[in-house]
Amino acid sequence: MAKSSWAKFPHPEKAYVYDGANLKRHWDRLHRGDCEPFPKDEAIQDAWRAYHLGDFGRAIEAGLAAGADGANVANKAQAIYATYLERAGPRKAKLFQEAMERGEAAMRERPRDANAHYFFAMAAGRYGQEISIAKALAQGLGGKIREALEKAIKLQPKHADAQIALGTWHAEIIGKVGAMVGKLTYGASKDAAVEHFQKALKLNPDSAIARIEYANGLVLLFGKDRMKEAEKLYAEAAKQKPLDAMERLDVEAAKAELED
Q: pLDDT tens-digit profile of 83-126?
């Protein structure tokens, strides 16, 4: 895709520039959610710099140009871009599908890479939300997503983002088909959803997206009974201090939720 086809990140900040050694210095905090190892390849480092800055198109293109080792940054950047910045529905679904297909290839090529599995699941989950949970389940994506997330956690037990996604998986299954069918057909449960969200917050206590997805999950699972708790989580998410473009987009999403 041409560079001109990528929408610009709407909240540019000098604080999101991680030049030179600053990237490695802040890496652990920036990647506390996904536990991505610091890359040795300078081209991939630059792709991640573009990602953190909010230049998602450049991050995608640089990641793809770096070959198999650049798949993680390309796939994450594409999923985040499609989630927050792409407005055209058909293109949004296509972007998720592309990242999902590259993620499947990455899982085959690097089966011991936790994020090969996680970024597949991330793109597949968002693709499912875009086309509808019912269609995604009919295509067999539910089982593939769960398997990939559980593999990511097995390979990297501190993977907070995979815990978030697994909590969302349980919540969305139950929200779509109900607790009984969800349990019998897919092995989904309300208790498991809450447990995964809580684990994510314990692993990454500064995460806005963990709070947002936890809140969304509570509404799906319990409706008005847990609405106050959900609103508290949205408010907490809106107060987090973002360190890069993705975190800023998460915080802005929480603020928008509170305004609705």
A: 999 998 899 999 999 999 999 999 999 999 999 999 999 999 99
Helix (H) or strand (E) holding 162: helix 160-177
- Class of 8-259 per CATH? mainly alpha
Long-range pairs, 225-234, Cβ under 8 A, ≥24: 231/258, 234/258
Helices 245-259 and 208-222 meet at what angle, rounded to 10? 40
**Ramachandran class of 39: left when φ > 0, alpha when ψ lies in -120 to 50, beta otherwise:** beta
Angstrom distances, CA of residue 126 to CA of 26, 71, 90, 138: 28, 18, 13, 15
* CA 108 distance to own-chain centroid: 20
Closest CA to 79 of 51, 114, 53: 51
Full-model pTM = 0.94
